[in-house]
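Most newcomers find our protein records easier to grasp once they have seen one. To make this concrete, we reproduce a full record directly below:

===
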Amino acid sequence: MRRRTRAAITAAAALLAATALPGAATAAASTTGNTAGNTAGNTAASTATSTAGSTATGTGATAAAARVPWSVRHGSASASGERWVETSVAGIFHTLVIRGELTGSGSGCHSLWIRYTYDLAPAPPRKYAEVCGSDSTPVALRHQYRPTTSGYLTVCRGTDDTEDCAAWQNITWWPVSGG
């Protein structure tokens, strides 16, 4: 009974990871394929899925999703880079990774802000980078990510608040062909 319960939990976690996050599909497919192969005796599908999962994820602790470009511009500043989700091999733990650069090309200061919504509860915006004049600074952050997390970023004029900003860009929306 414990074995069937464990297999059901593993299959449910794999299904959730495969439908909720890109990059989790490889680990989920491997787990689902192995579970299906064990219960239905489908050794050919199980072997093919297991081989594909092993090749894609290797021996590392995480499987990275396809990188998706992001960019936002406001006034004389712009920010751009790539974002992706790193998923544990088990498909349980997820980290949103954002890398890029904030660049100013004129006078005045600009800042990059990010805000998250957790289970429909919005958190306040937080400043992650700022530049003044014709300067640039790297943007590099990691954030715990769940399927019910939504994230947005923007560039604002000034460094104190989010009153004069570009439209908020969704950083947790994953295009089907993002890679």
